[in-house]
Amino acid sequence: MLVVKKFGGTSVADKERIFNVARRCMEEYKKGNDVVVVLSAMGKQTDVLLAQAREINPNPPKREVDMLLTTGEQISVALMAMALDSLGVPAVSLNAFQVPMRTTSNYGNARLKDISTERIRNELESRRIVLITGFQGVNKFDDYTTLGRGGSDTTAVALAAALHADICEIYTDVDGIFTADPRIVKTARKLSEITYDEMLDLASLGAGVLHNRSVEMAKKYGVKLVVRSSLNTKEGTLVKEDVTVEQMLITGVACDKNTARIAVIGLEDRPGVAFKLFNHLARHNINVDIILQSVGREGTKDISFTVAEDEVDEAVAILNRHRATSVKCEEINVDRHVAKVSIVGAGMMSNPGVAAKMFEALADVGVNIKMISTSEIRVTVLVDESSVERAMNAVHDKFALGVTG
Amino acid sequence: MLVVKKFGGTSVADKERIFNVARRCMEEYKKGNDVVVVLSAMGKQTDVLLAQAREINPNPPKREVDMLLTTGEQISVALMAMALDSLGVPAVSLNAFQVPMRTTSNYGNARLKDISTERIRNELESRRIVLITGFQGVNKFDDYTTLGRGGSDTTAVALAAALHADICEIYTDVDGIFTADPRIVKTARKLSEITYDEMLDLASLGAGVLHNRSVEMAKKYGVKLVVRSSLNTKEGTLVKEDVTVEQMLITGVACDKNTARIAVIGLEDRPGVAFKLFNHLARHNINVDIILQSVGREGTKDISFTVAEDEVDEAVAILNRHRATSVKCEEINVDRHVAKVSIVGAGMMSNPGVAAKMFEALADVGVNIKMISTSEIRVTVLVDESSVERAMNAVHDKFALGVTG
Fold first, then answer.
1. Which one of A356, B90, B155, B296 is most buried, by most CB atoms within 10 A?
2. Is the pLDDT confidence value at B300 over 90?
3. Residue range B253-281: average pLDDT?
4. What is the number of CB-based contacts under 8 A between chain A and chain B?
């Protein structure tokens, strides 16, 4: 069996944790399995390097930032190889040049294009554990690139796909995927299985265990993913195409506090106004999420939408620049104290009453809904940030997620 | 003009020094010259990484040590590129894979075999300063190697040779090559020129500004070397084949305190005894320097020799292991409080009285000579460590080295 394991930065933050990971890899190896391990940079190393860069140049060239950051994972894999050696397990570390791992050319946010498997297979055949730098690649200019947020997860899934691995294990500091954040909903329960699509909706909604790009890639290539803890040996959650256990109506409740609402009041009510507004934002790469349009006072309309909280100032600045021309309006309001609460579940596709049931749960505990957005397997509502906890618990209870299905 | 500049770890130890180097490179660039810069790892970074490795594995695999250490120079070149960018100077950093810089396969002490110049030339033609990681290479397995002590100097000289550079400048924390160590001999004078051979003898005698390997390579390929300070703009010392200024009798006085004398007393006086003794040491890679053999008490002989101080314990242990068999002797004595004092100069070849003049100088100040060793352009004496300062000053004065020739 060929197993790809991915450990994040906190799992390799110090000597003790490095040996903890090394022992887990050794156990897998001693079962006779082929083991490929993807590692992130140690602890806060990436942040330390970035701070060093900004001290020298507040706006450092992206190519050189990637050249700098890729040293982080290289240190991790080299030290892990030394730890395995001291346990008597043969291992070899490889960086993006050595695999090689080819990406698109854009620095800081490259996409994996092609992974050569020859060297990795040769090392596995020599019965070595192969340790590979996550998050990094090499572009057509033979320059280092990095994969952006969630990059090491993507490296692991891409390697699992390229090597036709039997399983890709993503180790994290939680036991798996839960029906809700256990810190907010005490009755939250770990799921044993979940579909790729549900996982995608959960990730984009702020559940934050796996990055969307890695789940999308896993879905595309049918990579069997497991999310599990690096701190214990509990089974974790299996992410795959179809779940075999009885399909529940909904799978989980997620929240995302990194959101803010912008209301543009009193826009002219004529064709093209909405297009122009959102086009200005798109040109500056500002992602707009839920959109609500309503009729305003005579001859005008109001448009509300949500953006990530750290982009709200820029979004408002952009709109203000165009208020005299293409975005004529009476006022622009911002509400930062909002949060998204969502329910996700493949089961709701064939069950039209789900949204209503969610709204009922919220009404029962007096939570006011500010905006609504739905997809085939998801219902999202925007609520006041202060009522998130109440909202999540109410919805979680309503759908009896704490009870094993 | 194409200029290769090499800066060591202390020259890039912090933000201020990085900018100091960046500004010097910018000045060269603004003259219209092509500039290639070789950098070492920042400050004590290499030692920090080695300590981290040993904490995990007291005897780490050499391949992985090189994988670890090469991150140090990569950080230096990336940060330097950012510094130059902030000064408005286009620059690009390259590691050993990107050049590529091919070496022999032995980790920790590889030798450069082949440097591709295509990418460097392309970057220079685009009017970029090219920043290259010193000390590192890639072997035939596509693994990182490091070049051992003085590695970054060697990288710089090899690049200068491969690129047919007009000059290779080695920046250090002293103003150039001196007639003696200015900390010991107050009247020591900076040399404006010196030959490769003199430099080789000075380096091996503990003057320690340039490593022998880099000087040997410079001599082999006729690379014009300049040793100068990174702290000021003084001219430095030019190292080349023939010096054009009037040839002095001797060029400099050097001392080396990292030495110890081992005396093997009462060896059997028959053929092969010396061979066996030194063969044991050679097998363990222990370098023996000055050797003195004298007739001992009836039917025996004594052999004394010097080794580096940090190898003396191992050397004695090796000899003791063989005392019952091939190295039968009465006793083995060690004297750690000795030092070598040497005079070097191409001018002494045609001047037989030089050694005698040195001995006279030492006798004048009451310094006892324990051993003597000579080559065509060098005389070395072993003296008591406590008399080094007196010995060097006496010799320096005798040959009037403080007076400009």
1. B155
2. no
3. 88
4. 104
Most confident of A127-131, A216-220, A337-341, A370-374: A127-131
A74 touches chain B (CB under 8 A): yes
How many CA atoms does the CB half-sphere of A83 hold within 13 Å? 22
Which of A158-172, A263-277, B6-20, B376-390 shows the lowest mean pLDDT across its residues? A263-277
| Domain harbouring B57, CATH code | 3.40.1160.10
The answer to the question of residue B308 being in a domain is no
What pLDDT is attached to residue A243?
64
- Domain of B97 in residue numbering reads as 2-172
| Mean pLDDT across A219-232 | 93
Q: How far apart are CA B123 and CA B106, in angstroms?
A: 30
The residue in chain A having the minimum alpha-carbon distance to the alpha carbon of residue B76 is: A68
> Which residues of chain A have a CB within 8 Å of the CB of B78?
53, 64-65, 67-68, 71
Burial of A369 (0-12, 13-18, 19+ CB in 10 A): middle
Q: Distance between CA B401 and CA B88 in Å, rounded?
A: 45
CB contact under 8 A, A15 and B70: no
C-alpha span between B146 and B266 (Å, rounded):
44
Nearest CA in chain A to B142: A98
Return the closest-CA partner of residue A72 out of A126, A172, A144.
Answer: A144
B49-57: long-range contacts, CB 8 A cutoff, minimum separation 24: B49/A75, B52/A79, B53/A78, B53/A79, B53/A82, B55/A15, B56/A15, B56/A18, B56/A19, B56/A79, B56/A82, B56/A83, B56/A86, B57/A82, B57/A83, B57/A85, B57/A86
The alpha carbon of residue A37 is apart from the nearest alpha carbon of chain B, in Å, by 16
Mean of the per-residue pLDDT values of chain A: 90
Please indicate, yes or no, if residue A398 is contained in any of the structural domains: no
Q: Are the C-beta atoms of A265 and A349 separated by less than 8 Å?
A: no
User: Best-predicted range by mean pLDDT among A75-79, B192-196, B227-231?
Assistant: A75-79
Cβ contact B71–A68 (<8 Å): no
Give the gap in angstroms from C-alpha B132 to the nearest C-alpha of chain A: 12
For A263-280, the pLDDT digits (tens) are: 999 888 877 888 888 889
Per the structure, how many domains does chain B have?
Answer: 1
Mean pLDDT of B93-98: 98
Return the residue matching tokens 């040993």. Answer: B54
Answer yes or no: is pLDDT of A245 > 80. no
| Whether A20 contacts chain B with CB within 8 A | no
Look up the pTM and report it. 0.82
B375 forms beta bridges with B378
Domain assignment of residue B17, yes or no:
yes
Name the residue in chain A with its Cα closest to that of B18. Answer: A56
Q: Give, as one character, the DSSP assignment of residue B102.
A: E
Evaluate whether ipTM surpasses 0.85.
no
pLDDT at A405: 42
In a domain, A47, yes or no: yes
For an interface test with A, the pick among B19, B56, B62, B87 (most A C-beta atoms closer than 10 Å) comes out as: B56
Contacts A83 to B, Cβ<8 Å: 56-57
In this prediction, residues B101-111 reach a mean pLDDT of 94
Nearest to B82 among A15, A56, A70 (CB): A56
Contacts of B142 in chain A (CB under 8 A): 97-98, 119
Q: Which residues of B touch A63 (CB under 8 A)?
A: 92
**Strand arrangement of the beta sheet that strand B129-133 belongs to:** B91-94, B129-133, B34-39, B2-7, B167-172, B225-229, B237-240, B193-195
What pLDDT was estimated at residue A275?
A: 85
**Minimum distance, in Å, between the CA of residue A373 and any CA atom of chain B:** 44
- C-beta atoms of A74 and B67 within 8 A: yes
- Read off the pLDDT of residues A26-75 as tens digits, 9 standing for 90 and up: 999 999 999 999 999 999 999 999 999 999 999 999 999 999 999 999 99
Contact assignment for A83 to B53 by CB distance below 8 Å: no
